[in-house]
Amino acid sequence: MRELLLIGIGTGNPDHLTAEGRRRMAEADLILVPRKGRDKSDLAEIRRAICADAAPLVPVAEFDLPVRDAANPDYRQGVEDWHDAIALAWARAAGGAARVALLIWGDPSLYDSSLRIAARLDPAPQVRVVPGITAIQALCAAHAIPLNAVGAPVLVTTGRRLRDEGWPAGVDRLAVMLDGETSFRGLDPQGVRIWWGAYLGMDEQILEAGPLAEAGPRILAARAAARARHGWIMDIYLLDRGADDRRKDGPEGGQGET
Questions:
Q1: Which of 100, 176, 188, 223 is the most exposed place for a label (fewest CB within 10 A)?
Q2: Mean pLDDT value across the chain
Q3: Is the pTM of the predicted complex or chain greater than 0.85?
C-alpha cells in the first residue's frame, strides 16, 4: 500500500459525500468496507451503495472489523490493542493494492481513530484525508440552530467524560459524542436545554429538543424504541445552560421522525 485515502462520508446520507470524495474514490485501486456484524449490516450496505454510485468500476474488499475487548479493565490499553488488530485487518484486506480508500463515517478528524490506526501501518503509506460532514454539523442543521451562542465557546466531549467528571467548568455549551449510556441523566436538569438527534441524515432520523427535564424522558423512550427496532443506534446531542435568549437558538419541543 503506497497511498491510503481516508474519505469522510458524513452521517449516512449519500448526498453528504463531497465532489472531492467522489473523485478520490474513483482514483483508488481498491475500497475497503468493514463489516461490523449482523446487527450493523446496514452500515456496510450504505457504504456499498456509496461505492456503487460514486466509484462503480473500483473493486471493493470487505473485511470483518475486530471487536474491542470491553472487559479489559485498562481502557486505554484495550483501545491500543484494538487499533493494532484493526491496522492488521486493513493490511490484510488491502492485499497488493497500491492506492486504497477507506470510507469514514463523519470525518476522520473528529472522534474517529482512523488516522491513529493508519500510523501503525508498516511500511507507512502516504495518508490523504478528504473531510466529511460531522455529526455535530448534521445535528445543528437538522435542528436549524447555530453550534455556538454569540461569542461563546463550545466544548466537544464524550459521554464517558461527562459521567466521570460532570459538567466542565468555564463553558456553557457541550456537544456530547460517543454516549451509549445517555449520560445527561446524571445532570441537574435545572436551566439546561438539549438538542438530540439519532441516525442523522438517514431516512430513520429522529430529533428531540427542549428543556432537559422535559425532553430527557422523550429521548430515552425514543432511543430505546429505535435501538430495539434497528439493533444499533448512532446519536449525538448538544447541551446548553447559558443565560442568553433561547428563542434565538432553536425550536422548542420534540421534532418527531422525518
A1: 188
A2: 92
A3: yes
